Amino acid sequence: MRVLADVHELVGDALVPSGARWTLAEPGRQLDANFVHLPAGRHVGSHLEPDLDVMLVVVAGGGIVGTPDGEQVIADGNIVWLPRGSSRNLTAGDSGLSYLTVHRRRQGLQVRSRPGG
User: Fold this and answer.
1) 22-51 pLDDT per residue, tens
2) Scanning 25, 45, 58, 116, which has its CA 20 to 30 A from the CA of 6?
3) What is the pTM of this model?
4) Which of 43, 39, 44 is nearest to 61 (CA)?
5) pLDDT (tens digit, 9 = 90+) per residue, 48-78?
6) What InterPro entries does UniProt report for this protein, alphabetically (predicted)?
7) What does the domain layout of the chain look like in residue ranges?
8) 50 vs 34: CA distance, rounded Å
9) DSSP string for residues in 77-110
10) Quick one: which of 1, 11, 3, 2 has its CA closest to 100?
């Protein structure tokens, strides 16, 4: 066990204006995780996650999660479950949005020989 990151430092890091500020990269892990920051008004376009449930933890700021069923306001401290098969988008509020996503690690692609080859 070891500390991997300090979210307070990641939130306060002005060198990276938008996007992933930290990614879990430990060998042999069973999870994937990303710490993402969006400045005020920026967004992540609509996308569908067909295979994995995703947990999103709002660490600072707030914004809106948009789904086909409507919009949900999210704020600092909220934990949001995004079920597999759901379509969603994110828009940062006036204070920006910093969040951590966690989900099961995807299996890597494997090279296999063709049948009969």
Assistant:
1) 888 888 888 889 999 999 999 999 988 888
2) 45
3) 0.81
4) 39
5) 888 899 999 999 999 999 998 899 999 999 9
6) RmlC-like_jellyroll, RmlC_Cupin_sf
7) 7-104
8) 18
9) T-EEEE-TTEEEEEEEEEEEEEEEEEEEPPPPP-
10) 11
